[in-house]
Amino acid sequence: MMSEFDVIVVGGGPAGTSAAIRLAQNKVNVLLVDRADPPGSKNVSGGVLWGNDLGKIIPDWEKIIPVERLITRKGTTFLTKDSAISLDFSSRKFLTNRTGYSVLRVKMDLALAKKAKEEGAMVIGGVTVDSVARKDGKIIGIEQDGDTITSDTVILAEGANPRVAIDSGLRKPIGDRDVAIGVKQIYKIPEDKINERFNLSGNEGFAGEYVLGYLPDGVEAGGFLYTNKNTLSVGVVVSPSHLRNYGQMHSYDIMEEFVQHPSIARLVEGGRLEEYSAHLVVEGGLSSVPKLYGDGYMIAGDAAGFSFSNGLVIQGMNYAIASGIAAADTFIEAKEKGNYTAKALSDYQKKLEESYVLKDLRTFKGIENSTWSSMAHRTIPDILERFLFRLNLEDGLPKKHILELLLRSVSESGHNKTSLALEAYRMMRRM
Amino acid sequence: MEIEEKLGVLNYKTDKSYAHITIDPVICETCPDRFCTFACPAHCYTVIDNKINFKYEDCVECGTCFFACSHGSVKWTNPKGGHGIKYKYG
Amino acid sequence: MTLKIIVMMKQVPDAEEIFIDPVTYTLNRTAARGVINIPDENALEIALQIKDKVGAEVTVISMGPPQAEEAIIECMGRGADRGILITDRAFAAADTYATSLTLAATIDKIGKYDIILAGESTTDSGTGHVGPGVAEFLDIDQVTYAESAEVVDDKIRVKRILEDADEVVEVPFPVLVTVLTGANIPRRATLRRKIDAIKKGIERWDHETLGLPPDWIGIRGSPTIVGAVKVPEEKKRASKKISLEQIPEMIDELFEKGIIKREDGA
Ligand SMILES: Cc1cc2nc3c(=O)[nH]c(=O)nc-3n(C[C@H](O)[C@H](O)[C@H](O)COP(=O)(O)OP(=O)(O)OC[C@H]3O[C@@H](n4cnc5c(N)ncnc54)[C@H](O)[C@@H]3O)c2cc1C
Ligand SMILES: Cc1cc2nc3c(=O)[nH]c(=O)nc-3n(C[C@H](O)[C@H](O)[C@H](O)COP(=O)(O)OP(=O)(O)OC[C@H]3O[C@@H](n4cnc5c(N)ncnc54)[C@H](O)[C@@H]3O)c2cc1C
Ligand code: SF4
Ligand code: SF4
User: Fold this and answer.
1) pLDDT (0 to 100) of residue A302
2) Mutation test of the interface with chain C: which of A32, A124, A129, A231, choosing the one with the most C Cβ atoms within 10 A?
3) A92 within some domain
4) Residues A266 and A205 in one domain
5) Cβ(A349)–Cβ(A413) below 8 Å
6) Which domains are assigned to chain B?
7) What are phi and psi of A180, to 5 degrees?
8) Mean pLDDT for chain A?
9) H or E segment at A24?
10) Strands C141-152 and C203-205, how do they pair?
11) A367: confidence class by pLDDT, cuts 50, 70, 90
């Protein structure tokens, strides 16, 4: 029997929309379904978009996607209770070697869904897919409210909480180790004020990542602050296992602790809170990647565990886009042979192995452990704070050599030099 | 700023005929950790008179509580048909 | 013969997303996304309930910009059979008189109908003129403030909610009924029906389709003159957390400030 569609894509995030755009451009009869109305309006990122892969499907993507600012200044900051120790890097090199744009997902995803529609995809928002439809073990489409809608292949791109894939047994349920909880706030601040505060001009943007080394009870979290045109994206990311094992902190209190830190409070001051949001961040690394394809289906983006995070920077949109395109290309080739079995779709895995998607995941195997290591959150900031305080303090005593100051800070912090060096070395290797 | 105030700026299209998340009060009754109350970023799980009180109306659909509860009390589904949280920025 | 029902639906900016610009004190709707006017969802639901019970052909009509197509598809996804979008630059800036006339002309053009359902008022302009206005132009009976309705033989039985009473009336066809906000819980669209709706498509009519002279519609056909728009002064609201013991103290304070008064005036 003929299927109603060639492909049904479940999920209108960057993975799903990229797949639908690529498929529609190649005259594939594709249906894109998103549970949000309008599509994308439940999605959250930090968000700095490394969008180069979008160029493959939308040559002028920087115009089509409502990007906010081009990141030209980056900051990495260790926050302790009283201090902020930053590495600030701004470079004109970023103007020619574009690293990333700040984006707001609701606008971005809607633009991508519109693009998919323009290219000929059928795009439907406001409908939640219940499950995949099976026949003789093969996936033959999806189920919604008792109806079966058939397609030769289903691309599951449902994001970090993939109910359809989990409930259909196509991947294992999410656990503490696979994800982190991201909480985010948007503040409205006039454009010129942002430029002034962050030392920017025009559409230049700042992207800062923070290590929150001052939370009570040993809870560790990362923070981010990104500039948009006339809003700031400010958020924290905390591992559930960490929250579970240490102390009695609420995830939403960590968000508040972050914006109350003096060095952040200054930056958001006067801003009106426009939005509060929360979303899972995929953290699990290679061990949480499920089987990526089978008879009549492929899994892409966050749903497949494709994301990179070193505790500071989160990249996921770029992997989502790359994997969405790879899934589309796999289908286009399979269609030529009219064969949508697991064997035919296994090319998807090959494509991902050859691209940075799976290469990066293999390179950074094990990084998730270092991400939350107390080294980054406690030890380094503690030693640095002592060291920099001494270095910059004029206390009327004879000056010391820098190395001596540093060693003294280490011993004062109560850490053993050798084990510290060993741990630092291990962490650096994984990063 | 209090969490309730933060949730107050959000736009929800509440589904009055379907609660997308449900808990089993019997399991919660004897729960030793009540970790859901710490993990949920939208303050949907609270303890009132030593009982767990759950409001699905404030849920932002992050998915945390499903695995945060290690006692199998939480039944988690997506809201149906465009209901639930509707972000402006994301 | 199948019953013919027409539902009038307006796409309005999401009320949750309209805010008063703190600088200019004007309503800022630019950021607000379009949604179906809430009582129109309830009107559609009543139409679909009648369709479920006695069978009917439900047509949704909407006058608005091209983006209103999404809202019509959503209505068809819930069960409406046909969607007509009345869209034309010439309709722009219509007041409630010109809007009612245009919608009445649309209904005349559709031809046969038994029941017209409308929302009681909109969340964006909220005049409540349009339903009754259409009934007047068509010269048919109207029933306002309906909470529910069912078809009994050749009549519609409507439950009206009035300030001091509920009222049940029976009216023969053709009739126009306006429906209260929150009268029912609207059903959800299904994927199957939304796919079918997109495949079937909606109809787009303009002033020529309707045969309406340009002088009768849009801004030229609108006798309303806006004298002035005033934003009521914003009263600062304050909230604070107090303990149980502090309640009497606070009540005293409210009396002092004249915010509350004793019934005897003392
Ligand atoms: C706080 C935070 C900060 C981040 N920062 C960055 C960053 O700076 N840079 C970066 O590159 N990445 C970042 N990420 C990661 C990035 O957001 C994700 O990797 C990316 O969104 C994955 O895209 P996706 O298309 O796979 O999934 P999603 O974007 O989650 O899209 C999935 C879509 O599927 C829909 N859906 C789910 N289930 C169903 C169903 N049953 N039926 C219909 N539709 C369904 C959802 O509504 C959604 O629209 C961040 C993430 C978080 C949470
Ligand atoms: C003083 C004044 C000045 C205005 N000036 C302008 C202006 O300059 N430019 C401008 O664009 N608008 C203007 N408007 C708004 C415009 O008149 C109304 O949006 C329109 O006539 C509908 O009226 P309403 O929203 O009050 O509908 P109501 O009468 O409150 O609506 C009742 C019901 O009628 C139906 N209905 C209403 N409108 C439609 C529609 N378009 N399609 C299908 N069904 C519908 C729905 O079922 C709705 O629930 C003005 C309004 C007023 C009161
Ligand atoms: S939902 Fe789970 S974690 Fe929360 S109280 Fe119930 S059993 Fe405990
Ligand atoms: S899904 Fe997230 S926001 Fe919703 S109740 Fe669970 S933890 Fe809270």
Assistant:
1) 97
2) A124
3) no
4) yes
5) no
6) 3-86 (3.30.70.20)
7) -125, 160
8) 91
9) helix A14-25
10) unpaired
11) low
Q: Which residues of B touch C14 (CB under 8 A)?
A: 11, 86
- Amino acid identity at B30: T
Tell me how far the alpha carbon of residue B32 lies from the centroid of ligand 3, in angstroms: 8
Do B88 and C185 make contact, defined as CB atoms within 8 angstroms? no
Q: Cβ–Cβ of A126/B85 closer than 8 Å?
A: no
C63-84 average pLDDT score: 97
Which residue range is the domain that position A410 belongs to?
Answer: 373-430
Q: In ligand 2, which atom is closest to the CA atom of C96?
A: 21
- B84–A251 C-beta distance less than 8 A: no
Q: How many domains does chain C have?
A: 1
The answer to whether position C227 is within a domain reads no
Say which residue, C253 or B19, is predicted with more confidence: B19
Q: What pLDDT does C228 receive?
A: 77
Does the C-beta of B44 come closer than 6 Å to ligand 3? no
Contact A44 B40 (CB under 8 A): no
How would you label A275-309 residue by residue, b for 16+ Cβ within 10 Å and e otherwise? bbbbbbbbbbbbebbbebbbbbbbbbbbbbbbbbb
Strand blocks (E) in A80-175: 84-90, 101-102, 122-124, 131-135, 138-144, 147-156
Structural domain harbouring C41: 3-216
Q: Considering the domain boundaries, does residue A353 fall inside one?
A: yes
ipTM for the assembly = 0.97
Residue A205 lies in a domain: yes
Range from A88-92, A257-261, A298-302 carrying the lowest mean pLDDT: A88-92
The two tokens of residue A407 are 């060693």
The reported pLDDT for the residue numbered C194 is: 98
Q: Which of residues 126-185 of A touch C (CB under 8 A)?
A: 126-127, 129, 142, 144-145, 147, 149
> How many domains are contained in chain A?
3
**Whose CA is closest to atom 47 on ligand 1?**
A35
* pLDDT of A90 above 70: yes
> Does the beta-carbon distance from A186 to B42 stay under 8 Å?
no
CATH of the domain at A317: 3.50.50.60
Number of CB pairs < 8 Å for A and B?
A: 138
Mark whether A170 and A38 lie in a shared domain: yes
Among residues A323, A345, A364, the one where a domain terminates is A364
Q: Which of A219, A252, A282 is the last residue of a domain?
A: A282
* CA distances in angstroms from C199 to A68, A385, C85, listed in the order given: 36, 64, 16
pTM for this predicted structure: 0.91
Burial class (CB in 10 A: 0-12, 13-18, 19+), C125: middle
**At CB < 8 Å, which residues of chain B contact C?**
11, 16-17, 80-83, 86, 88
